Amino acid sequence: GLVLLLIYAISGFLLAPWLIRQQLPSLIDKHLGAQGSASAVRINPFLLTLEITDLTITEKNSTPALQVGRIFVDVEASSLLRRAWTFRQIQIDRPVINAELDAKESLNLARLLKPAQTDAAPAAQPAAESTPLPRVLLQHFVISGGTFSFTDHTVQPTARTQFNPVNFEMRDVSTLPDHRGEHVLTARLRDGGSLQWQGKITLAPMDSSGSIVLKDAKLATPWRFVQDHLTIAEPAGSYELGLSYRLRYG
Description:
Blueprint: H1 2-32, E1 34-37, E2 40-44, E3 49-59, E4 64-75, E5 85-93, E6 96-101, H2 108-118, E7 136-152, E8 159-174, E9 180-189, E10 194-203, E11 206-218, H3 220-226, E12 238-249
């Protein structure tokens, strides 16, 4: 028993992190057609936690698409004895997403998904019967200190905008039937203005309701992305908008 415990500890603390770091670049290349790396991977096999620091995904032309300061996953040990995977916490710290639309209207984030699509089954094959969602319970999901940048090269001069910081939180989200969770997103525009999105969501069946509010946003920000099509000078002032929604998928 002691020998098996020692082998489990060595595999979890040393071997598994080493394998993940070694295989991560090839997995990212295979599924995303991009370059990827992480500075450190840590696993605690007794607490069932995984931590990845400084994850970077870069296109083959060296354009950075995604950077994440830290990913932390905490699996509840008791879920191994149940019929549902339970994640006590998934936390993503300081993610940076760089979305770029080039002069040919090709979005870099969309290009990353193309290699994965080419490996899919041919469209001519008949669609398989729908399979039930895996039984998963996510108690707490957090994105903190994120940055989302968008650059549009289809207009001249090049238009840019940025959301920072972006914070997102979800609680008690599950694929179990009629299990209802909550989510809140807050973000601030670099040019001024704040965005808040909050609501509730059920995954089985799909049902979501909530509200989206944008406050004190500058009119000049969207104008930069359409100025080639409008014969008006850069507008001053700000605007606000809000909406409530209810989405259901039967």
